[in-house]
Design a protein that fits this description.
This protein has nine helices and nine strands. By secondary structure, it is an alpha/beta fold. Strands 2-1-6-5-7 form a five-stranded parallel sheet, with helices on both faces. Strands 3-4 form a two-stranded antiparallel sheet. The chain has a two-stranded antiparallel sheet with strand order 8-9.
């Protein structure tokens, strides 16, 4: 079972996401365990529960302090071997291949950044890997953490109802998923391609691969470059 420990200053954000749909079923099946920790519980400032301070050298905004983060990771980690991830715009771009690699770990701690970032000493001495979910700025690291947990969890065997569905998803083999149709076969004059109704599985596979390649060339040609 893969265990996620998420360190955040907004723990209530995670309930609506992690307790629904596939995430909920994955936990019920004991495929993953997801624990959300309030960083403010680990600060030495018990009165004001402060976890940030002004940056040395001046500048706008606030920086998350080292003490609460070091103490939180130490307490959560215990004697377990863990990989500590920090969600950051400066991290490695997250991808399907990246998500697959993370399924090989048993314990992942994810630090959700905020404000102007975290004390550099946390990066240097505590974080094993920084991950970016895209070239844009978000209010905090909570949404990236949810994204990482979701993407990794659904790749764990037994989480999805049909394992075959993983094989045909977008970004497998650096291809986007092709078009999908369901009943009725004729909706207001708009018909499903005949090949999908033929029962010829070989022809259907060829058609789907062709469509997936064409869509990828049009929308995300960079994915094809990665596969070379």
């Amino acid at each position: 079972m893969l265990r996620f420990d998420i360190i955040t200053i907004f723990p209530d954000m995670f309930g609506p996401i992690l307790n629904e749909s596939i995430m909920k079923r994955a936990q019920e099946k004991k495929k993953v365990a997801i624990h959300v920790h309030d960083l403010r519980d680990y600060t030495d400032d018990k009165k004001h529960r402060k976890v940030d301070d002004r940056p040395f050298g001046g500048g706008p905004g606030m920086v998350m302090m080292a003490q609460p983060l070091f103490d939180a990771v130490k307490a959560i980690k215990g004697k377990r071997k863990v990989k500590v991830i920090y969600t950051s715009p400066a991290g490695k771009p997250f991808s399907q291949i990246h998500a697959k690699r993370l399924t090989s770990f048993k314990n992942l701690i994810i630090i959700c950044g905020h404000y102007e970032g975290i004390d550099e000493r946390v990066r240097e001495h505590l974080v094993d890997e920084e991950i970016s979910v895209g070239d844009y700025v978000l209010t905090g690291g909570e949404i990236p953490a949810m994204l990482i947990v979701d993407a990794v969890t659904r790749l764990i065997p037994g989480v999805l109802g049909q394992e075959e569905s993983l094989v045909h998803e977008s970004f497998e083999d650096n291809l986007l998923e092709g078009p999908q149709y369901t009943r009725p076969a004729n909706f207001r004059g708009k018909k499903v391609p005949d090949v999908l109704l033929s029962g010829n599985h070989k022809a259907i596979k060829v058609w789907r691969n062709t469509k997936a390649l064409a869509k990828t060339k049009k929308v995300r040609p960079d994915l094809l470059e990665k596969g070379r």
